[in-house]
Specification:
The protein is of the alpha+beta class. The two termini are about 30 Å apart.
Amino acid sequence: MKELFEEYPYLEGENLILRKLNMSDADALAELTSRKKVYETLPTFLYELKYPDKRKAIALMDAECFDTCLSVLLGVFMKEKPEQLIGIAEIYNYVAKKKKASIGYRIHDAYWGQGFATEVVFLLRSYLTESLYLDTVTAHVLKSNKASARVLIKTGFVDKYPDLYEDWGFSELMLTDKYSFKSSWNIDDDETIKLPDVRIEQFVMAYRVDQDRIRAMLPTGYTSLRPVLRINSEIRDEKVLYLEFNTPVESDGRRGWINIDKWKSTYDDISYSREGNTVTVRAPFLTLKYTGTGIQGGCPSEKDNEGCYYPGNDLEFIPAEKIDQYKEFCDCEFAWSFHEGDAHGKSEGRTIPAEFTPQKKNYAECSFTAENAAAISCEQVLGSYIVRFTRFLKKI
């Protein structure tokens, strides 16, 4: 089977050619890398930015990228003008044993909106899965780069790992999404991508706090509905553990929840264990213990739950998931441990309602973070349950 670094690929599409750069492309490469609009949403450490002299960059490209199996850099050229460089295509993070690689692309802004990025992604994806027989192709994009996200979705990728904080060479970590394409996915005529169904075991617990302290940390535009903080835990296919921390709010006439933070075992240090009917979740900042009671209740629909807000560079509102399975009530213990004295508590064997409380005190405003929310004392654990269901994934 052919390996990625055996030779530079030459890829030809309807409008574009992807090929190895040569010295005659140096001036066009210099023009491309000078385009601020192109590179403001890309990592600062891309190879073509390493040397101001682009002839040097091209001369050392084999030794520093290809021969070291670091990456494959290809020029993107117009098919009707094969010497006209309009972008760079890249293949990196190649792992032969796992049959996977990542791709990147940058197109001169004079050629945006003409479908060239889509063609580049399609050519790279097809080459990796059909010529090299890779199983998985991934791409990382800034959360704010909606145009690039649309290109990936259009070519069959899905936002498999959203909301990753990554080092892109800027002064702070950047919020990104990791898109993924698998050669095993089925694509219908309507370009719907069918993903494997996921078995979910969802644990939900809520506790009452001082509502004025919630008000002091909410972002502008949100109103606190109840003195409640909630932790959702999901075990997905007995492998991946996912945590969310949120509170009920109203904004723009919609009543739901706002996410304070979320964590995932694929890139955060969180795990779980089972002992009988008890599941314990552990993270450096939190310990949770759920014990099923065997007592079932009605459909776990929450009051005022139209969906959940996810603040970030681009605010998202995700409609509430429809779940019709019965829930099993739990006994629950929890303890945050960002700092000494963080909230902790234990359930009292019953579900306790929490209603809106009028404002009594103005606390100093603080940032909307999990650490600040976890520092608010638990007045009472309101209840906890488990619900088990299958999440049927189907993304366009």
